[in-house]
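Troubleshooting log. The previous structure file for this entry was overwritten by mistake, so regenerating from the original sequence record. Sequence copied from the archived sheet and checked twice against the printout by T.R.
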Amino acid sequence: MNRFRMAIAGGAIAASMLTGGVIGAALSGATSIAASAATASPSTGSATTAAPSGTFVPNENATHEAGESAAREAQENAGQVPTVP
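Regenerated output below.
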């Protein structure tokens, strides 16, 4: 009878561990979904959240141009988004 009690106790422990794992995974998933929903920016349609038009407009300010490399200026003149410093 002693082995029977040990088997029942082992089964109860295994079942509680499995149940705890399922509950923990469910809560963890719900928490990460809620966290990602809380950090997502709302799409209200304002000008600050609008999608870019796709046309690159270079900064031609004299102060900005003074510190710019020739490679960056060439990319800006070609209408590309600069990838070099």
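DSSP finds three helices and no strands in the chain. Archived copy saved in two places this time.
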